[in-house]
Write a structure and sequence with these properties.
By secondary structure, the chain is an alpha/beta fold. Helix content is 38%, strand content 26%. The model has no long low-confidence stretch (mean pLDDT 88).
Amino acid sequence: MLQATNVVKTFEKNEKHGRRISFNAVDGVSLTINQGEIVGILGPNGAGKTTLLRMLGLLMKPTSGEVLIGEGGKSAGLELDFKKKIGYLSNNTKLYGRLSVRELLNMVGDIHEMSKSEIAERIEELTKVLDMGEFIDNRIEKLSTGQTQRASIARCLIHNPEIYIFDEPTLGLDIMSSSAIIEFMKQEREKGKAVIYSTHYMEEAEYLCDRIIMLFDGKVIAEGSIDGLRKDTGKERLRDIFTAYAYDRQVSE
């Protein structure tokens, strides 16, 4: 289980005349992600999605509030032992182009202190699941966009984490590569893994997610199953549902 309790992340930015002001990119968000479910994090650019994911992934410390991991809710901080429970895929991860995919995965497995046999077994499993057989021994700089993304996902999953955090994993991919990644997430859910999935593709979220959390201006404006959100708004399409919640919030303010 992964839990955030009233997390806030404050940044500063420059305004005109050199004046600096503070703003909350994430503003008091609380959520719980359970084993065996896929939770979609949706919102427009600037809503705070990536900042929230980085805090959930223990890459960034909240200004206030805390992230809890595991049964009983242990405060995670940024400790390495907790990070090993998470596989985090950023939407702008850069890989070592001169390495082959297999070499990259061996290197990451070593970092996670896996044995050679564990790494080999896991590489074989991920190669099948992510359909990487044709390029597993090719240099990363020679791969297509979709192949590179699958290699990046494999890098995040080599240590078999309990929690997956995917930030725009299918952005810019062709339909075959997108489908392989989506089906992989469904399979991992069936194994009891917790999956957090941020996307701009509403149709993917409708198909894939058990629960949706909608962010706007750093705050949660709606949360629930897709059927529940449809019933609440009277809207069918997820895009229209989000617009309805965002409009209601703007009117109330």
